[in-house]
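#onboarding

Welcome to the new folks! Below is a worked example of what a typical request in this channel looks like: someone posts a single protein sequence, and someone else replies with the predicted structure as tokens. Don't worry about understanding the tokens yet, we'll cover that in week two.

Example request:
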Amino acid sequence: MMKEHTQKSLFDFTKSSSATKTILWSGLIAGILDAIAGVIVYFIFFKFSPFQVLQFIATGIHGPEAMNGGIPMIIAGTIYHFIIAYACAIVYFFLYPRLAILRNKIAVMGLLFGLGIWLVMNLLVLPLSNIPKGPFDMNLAIIGIIWHMTLVGLPIAIITSKYFSNNRN
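Example response:
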């Protein structure tokens, strides 16, 4: 008797019949990958420790004093970071069944969604926040765009598409 060969995917662990679990997985994966990239990039560019990166995120709400806020600001920055990651996951999840192009061009749309996330964050959210303003750095922008495309938008798109391909609605 021959065994049926099933193709394994990097994202098989996210297979779920639950929309909530799918959103939780995609937000968690995107949030973790984004945080890792942020820690690496902000260490290279600004010599920030991982804790300082999280405090820096907290400055968006609490202002520059968050950098000296210790553990409470590290926790706040972590929470704010994942709220944004989950918001992105939720938006994509609810757009996916409504926009055919998201279903037909999964990788391209995931990359474009990541670009959109970077644009919204850098042109709308960050300028309206309390994050200290600095000069524009083209190298940092290019790195940020690439990381948001590949490590945030793409995983959200792949995980979301897995849910809908397994649960045809």
